[in-house]
Automatic annotation (TrEMBL):
PANTHER family: 5-FORMYLTETRAHYDROFOLATE CYCLO-LIGASE, ATPASE INHIBITOR/5-FORMYLTETRAHYDROFOLATE CYCLO-LIGASE
EC primary class: ligase
Classification via Gene3D superfamilies: NagB/RpiA/CoA transferase-like
Annotated residues for binding of substrate: L53, E58
Stated name of the protein: 5-formyltetrahydrofolate cyclo-ligase
Cofactor(s) demanded: Mg(2+)
Length: 195
């Protein structure tokens, strides 16, 4: 792992690892993840959360989404902002939400202004990530969407960012940048990491 010097090298390596997981391994990881997920104390008083739709070998949070629906927690999914480059909007997500691929080929809810939930109204934003380290640093895909979304709320109690990842995405130490927003908590199928 010491040979992975650049953030780009790390992204490539970890994405290769997670894409190589079999369908059975992905399903098992998703089942174990929801076990960790529903034990989060933050969910006891939560009204609105943001999750994501899995892509590129990301751990699938669909069972966590279903758990939220079953427990009357409003669930939102990120959408690329149509006018503000590099920004995210969050739209309410239900079993009947129409999905369309965005410019990256990732499914997202079809934009509807009546379904937008302001970021400030979210209690938790569960973020996907490519890699994380033992200090809570998160490495994303490189677009900076989540960092831009979370930066204005760094000193606010909500929305609380919590990362979601496969166990294989954990590294000892990641190279970080000033704009990277660290996470206080990351959940994997086998463990909940807190800092």
């Amino acid at each position: 792992m010491q040979s992975l010097i650049t953030r780009s090298d790390i992204r490539k390596h970890i994405r290769t690892l997670r894409v190589a997981l079999t369908e059975s391994e992905q399903h098992s990881a998703a089942s174990q993840l929801v076990t960790q997920f529903r034990q989060l104390p933050e969910l006891t008083s939560t009204k609105n959360v943001a999750l994501y739709l899995a892509n590129d070998g990301e751990i699938d949070p669909s069972l966590a989404i279903q758990w939220c629906w079953n427990n009357n927690i409003n669930t939102c999914i990120p959408v690329l902002h149509p006018f503000s480059k590099g920004q995210l909007l969050f739209l309410r997500f239900t079993a009947n939400t129409e999905l369309i691929p965005n410019k990256y080929g990732i499914l997202e809810p079809k934009l509807s202004v009546t379904e937008i939930v302001p970021v400030a109204d979210l209690d938790i934003i569960f973020t996907p990530l490519v890699a994380f380290d033992t200090r809570g640093h998160r490495l994303g895909m490189g677009g900076g969407y989540y960092d831009r979304t979370l930066t204005p709320f760094i000193n606010s109690p909500t929305p609380k960012p919590i990362g979601i990842a496969h166990d294989c995405q954990q590294l000892q130490k990641l190279p970080s940048k000033d704009w990277d927003v660290p996470l206080d908590k990351i959940i994997t199928p086998s463990k909940t990491w807190s800092w």
